Amino acid sequence: MTNKMTKFKIKSGDTVQVIAGDHKGTEGKVLKVLKDKNKAIIEGVNMVKKHTKPSAQNPQGGIVEKEAPIHMSNLSLLTSKGETTRVGYRVEGDKKVRFSVKSNEVI
Fold first, then answer.
1. Distance of alpha carbon 92 from alpha carbon 46, whole angstroms
2. What is the CATH number of domain 15-79?
3. Is the pTM of this model over 0.85?
């Protein structure tokens, strides 16, 4: 893996749709972006069961369901109208903004 950081078009808080894999077609909100692994955690998508040992925070232990990361290449941003789109950047005035390539609206 190279030391070069990649610029992601998807940020936490965005609504995305899964476009490939087992969860294709599912929509959700991005909770966290894992920059070093090129992955994102999406709310309610790609749920896995994790077996936990009893601890001070969880004295019972047991099986916990949580979201697993999905690779960025399998995600597409959703616009306010609910359609998937690619993301572009442009400078408006003195600000750099993200915009929808399909509808040309600022995100």
1. 37
2. 2.30.30.30
3. no
Return the SS3 of 63: strand
**Cα within 13 Å of Cα(13), Cβ side:** 2
Q: What's the alpha-carbon Rg for the chain, to the nearest Å?
A: 17
Q: Where are the domains of the chain?
A: 15-79
CA 30/CA 41 separation, integer angstroms: 6
Residues 29/41, Cβ–Cβ less than 8 Å: no
Residue 74, number of CB atoms within 10 A of its CB: 19
**Among residues 33, 51, 52, which one has the least CA distance to residue 43?**
33
User: Is the pLDDT at 4 greater than 70, yes or no?
Assistant: no
Give the long-range contacts of residues 31-35, CB within 8 A, separation 24 or more: 31/67, 33/8, 34/69, 35/5, 35/6, 35/8
